[in-house]
Design brief:
By secondary structure, the protein is α+β, with helices and mostly antiparallel strands. Helices cover 58% and strands 11% of the residues. The structure holds fe (ii) ion.
Length: 644
């Protein structure tokens, strides 16, 4: 402004100076030359003023024109700001200070604007970069969202499937919290245990464990085991709402974290039917094993009492029936007598007396004979029939049912079997009873056949022995006595029943081979020649030849074949010694020698038992087995040997 004022003041001074100069010049010229008719000074100054004014006007016009042009340039500069054109400092300088100031201001503004534009551009670039990043992030986010949405859909679908699976599966699914309380139960809980969800949710798991198993169930221990070892399988009886129980198999598995904290999932399967079938299978196998063992055992029994005993004891002691009894009749259509009984039901003799004899062929029980598969009667019916049979009231303790089957084959009935139970017979039990009955029947038939065979056999043997002994009056009864002494020795030695029975038979038959020795040698009064003695020595071999086809036991045949062998090996016919001979032949040998010494002979009187024992002792360890001789001594000292 000062500059502007200073410039303007200069121009004013200049024009004042020009005015004065022109006034002076015009005044001089008018005075001297009458120039332009200017005659008065005032007119000269006026002319000078006009001239100056004209000059000023010309100057101003020129100046104005320059100013307009400069201003136009300034406008261009302003316009160029938008084009971001650089304004040099020289371009701002004009002859008009004010315009220069304006130009400078415009330049400053331009620079500021350029700077701001630059900054804005930089910011725009940054923003563009950020925008790009954001765009990428957005794209990723969008992709992630799509994946997430897809996963959520899959999860929802999976959850729905799981939920529908859990709801619809036949197994019970429970969720337990860390304290063992039930937090979830599926629909199967109601179907299997009859408990609704609100009945058990919030209750401890023990609430549905049956009876004493609830006290034994330790959830804390289970939880630790599941945490350490994972899945656990247990079989626990579970309570039903009506107080009954089911057998269950429970799989405890660690579950995901739930709103209730750590939890365990229990998948419960009802295995009641499976367990029942398992038990039935085990029971069936047990019965089959018992029947098998029974069949083997009873097949070896040769005596009727043993067969009856094995039968009733198997039924009560192994198969668990309350009572069992076998009835036997020697003759058809006669009363059947109780042959053997067993079980707690028959433990009282007052009860037993009602069962001592029953006629199953006639009267009240006769209808049973028509039922080949056995008859099952209730207690009431049986008591009525028994009362009809006995003719008076029967007072026996109650039972549930009784099974009666005839031990029958063809037309001949040998007996009946009665089996008592405290509960209804099961179908399988009836099958077992039939099997036992049939097996017993076979054993009885074998025993009966054996008894018959034995009778025939004994009669035949007795006839043979009688034929042998009839030839020599001095040896009559020898075989029976040897048999009796041998049995006595064997009993004293504690031998078993089969061995004693074999010795009884061997004693009777030991000299049967003498039937093949001629009377000339056998009945010779004087001493035997060597040849004759050799002939006598053949009788054990002849015995075996006679007896072998009969089918006697090996023990009997051996006892007969070796009864002339000696302890020291100097006997005949084989010269065997102790170990090779065996005990039974040596018992026969001692019994044979003792009877021979204590019997009368044509050439000597009988020895007394004491002397005979003394002879045995003298030959102990040489001819006779020392232990057997000692047994004879023991018998003599204890009771004295009775000479038969
Ligand atoms: Fe002999």
């Amino acid at each position: 402004m000062r500059k502007y004022i200073k410039g303007t003041l200069g121009y004013v001074c200049l024009f004042v100076f020009v005015f004065i100069l022109l006034g002076v010049i015009f005044s001089y010229l008018s005075d001297k030359f009458q120039f332009f008719l200017l005659i008065r000074p005032a007119e000269s100054w006026f002319l000078a003023l006009l001239t100056t004014a004209f000059a000023v006007i010309v100057f101003l016009l020129k100046r104005y024109h320059g100013l307009i042009r400069e201003l136009n340039r300034s406008l261009e500069m302003i316009n160029n700001i938008n084009n971001n054109t650089y304004i040099a400092e020289s371009e701002t300088k004009t002859s008009f200070p004010a315009v220069s100031d304006i130009n400078n201001a415009i330049r400053e503004i331009s620079r500021d604007i350029q700077k701001q534009v630059t900054e804005l551009n930089e910011q725009s670039i940054e923003l563009a970069k950020k925008n790009s990043k954001l765009d990428n992030a957005h794209k990723q986010l969008a992709a992630s969202y799509e994946q997430l949405q897809s996963l959520m859909e899959q999860l929802n679908e999976s959850e729905q499937r799981y939920h529908s699976l859990v709801i619809s599966i036949p197994d019970i699914v429970l969720t337990l919290d860390e304290n063992g309380n039930i937090t979830y139960a599926n629909r199967a809980c109601r179907d299997i245990l009859n408990f609704r969800r609100h009945d058990i949710v919030g209750k401890p798991f023990q609430f549905i464990v049956y009876g004493k198993h609830a006290d034994e169930f330790n959830f804390e221990k289970l939880r630790r085991t599941v945490e350490i070892n994972g899945e656990q399988l247990m079989q626990i009886p579970l309570l039903r709402k009506d107080g009954t129980f089911i057998e269950s198999e429970i799989k405890f598995t660690p579950a995901q974290e739930s709103p209730h904290g750590y939890s365990i999932q229990a998948i419960i399967r009802d295995i009641t039917e499976q367990k029942r079938m398992e038990r039935a299978l085990v029971e069936n196998n047990r019965r089959l094993r018992i029947i098998n063992e029974f069949s083997q055992k009873i097949a070896s029994e040769m005596e009727l009492p043993d067969i009856h005993k094995t039968c009733v004891k198997t039924l009560t002691e192994l198969l668990g029936f309350s009572g069992a009894a076998c009835f036997f009749s020697e003759e058809k259509n006669k009363n059947y007598s109780i042959a053997e009984y067993s079980g707690k039901y028959f433990s009282d003799t007052d009860i037993l007396k009602h069962f001592m004899q029953i006629n199953f062929n006639r009267g009240a029980f006769s209808f049973i004979r028509n039922d080949k598969d056995g008859t099952v009667l209730d207690f009431g019916t049986f008591v009525e029939l028994l009362a009809m049979e006995n003719g008076n009231k029967v007072d026996i303790p109650p039972f549930r049912q009784i099974y009666i089957q005839e031990l029958k084959n063809g037309d001949s009935g040998q007996g009946f079997l009665l089996v008592i139970t405290d509960s209804n017979f099961k179908h399988e039990e009836i099958d077992v009873l039939r099997s036992i009955c049939n097996t017993t029947l076979v054993a009885i038939e074998n025993a009966m056949y054996l008894i018959k065979s034995k009778k025939n056999y004994v009669a035949t043997i007795n006839a043979l022995i009688a034929a042998v002994e009839a030839r020599d009056q001095y040896t009559r009864g020898h075989s029976q006595r040897v048999s009796a002494y041998a049995v006595r020795i064997a009993e004293e030695m504690g031998m078993n029943r089969e061995t004693i029975e074999d010795l009884r038979i061997a004693g009777i038959l030991h000299d049967i081979g003498k039937i093949g020795i001629s009377d000339r040698i056998l009945l010779k009064k004087g001493p035997l020649t060597k040849e004759e003695y050799e002939e006598i020595k053949k009788h054990p071999a002849i015995s075996n030849k006679i007896l072998y086809p009969i089918g006697l036991s090996e023990r009997i045949l051996k006892a007969i074949a070796f009864h002339h062998e000696r302890y020291d090996g100097r006997g005949y016919p084989f010269g065997l010694s102790n170990e090779s001979i065996g005990l039974e032949p040596q018992i026969i040998a001692v019994a044979d020698a003792f009877d021979a010494m204590t019997s009368k002979r044509p050439y000597r009187e009988p020895l007394s038992p004491d002397k005979a024992i003394k002879e045995l002792e003298d030959n102990k360890g040489s001819q006779f087995h020392p232990d057997i001789v000692d047994v004879m001594v023991k018998i003599q000292r204890k009771n004295g040997i009775i000479i038969l």
